[in-house]
Known about the structure:
Blueprint: H1 6-15, E1 25-28, H2 33-41, E2 46-49, H3 54-91, H4 98-112, H5 117-129, H6 139-142, H7 150-156, H8 159-167, H9 177-182, H10 203-217, H11 229-242, H12 247-262
Parallel strand pairs: 1-2
The structure holds fe (ii) ion (FE2).
Fe (ii) ion binds at residues 130-131, 159, 183-184.
Amino acid sequence: MPGVDGFEVCRRIKATPETRLTPVVLITGLTATEDRIQGINAGADDFLSKPIDFNELLARTRSLLRLKQFTDELESAEGVLFSLAQSIEARDPYTSGHCERLAEMSARLGEKLGLTEEDIRALRRAGIVHDIGKVVVPDAILLKEGPLSPEETEVMRKHPVVGERICAPLRTFHGVLPIIRHHHERHDGSGYPDGLRGDDIPLTAAILQLADVYDALTTDRPYKTAIPWETALLMMDAEAERGWWDRELYAAFREMIQEARNHPEQEPSRKSANNATT
Ligand SMILES: [Fe+2]
């Protein structure tokens, strides 16, 4: 092929969101292991060596298309969950953009800490769906201006467990479930729903929690305006002092925010502000 080779075409197909799940079979005259490795690195799903056996090509294409069908079904199931999460976010006009910022901020902290790609992917997904359980919280509670009564608090506090239950059937959400369930735990055991403490709290959940709190502080809510980022960090310093956050993790988070403020072009857009860390 002029200009680009088959590996590069494959790499581009797999790097484009719209085509990344399209199966690619590399037909090659090369049998060397190195070329196969290059093909695998480029994202190829299968290989066929020249000369092509027509029946083998047909059988492999059928098998890949079958797999693609399962992937598509899984993708649409994820799509439904993301849409539901977005519609819940839309119930509260103050939370616009909160989920995207959270996904972005959590993933950046995960990268900074050297977490696995799988954990970072889970953080991105959790950023979008972590509050999906608020589907059971009535508007009168969700949009209430001012403090909640003990009964209302109890209803609101069901959302992590409900959210976990909603997302549980999706196998690809395996790493997302603990984040949904534990995104309101605190290091000293004073959080909910399980009152976990210290290292019993999954690291990914603790990461999302910090991003959630920071974003809620620095954006508008129905009953308060956004506070400056420096003040938000001071408030979170006091919370860390009180034992709510893991010291080491919070230090890394703080450093990331300060770095981002020194290079604001790297920070996700904050023009749509808001609430949502009940
Ligand atoms: Fe929440």
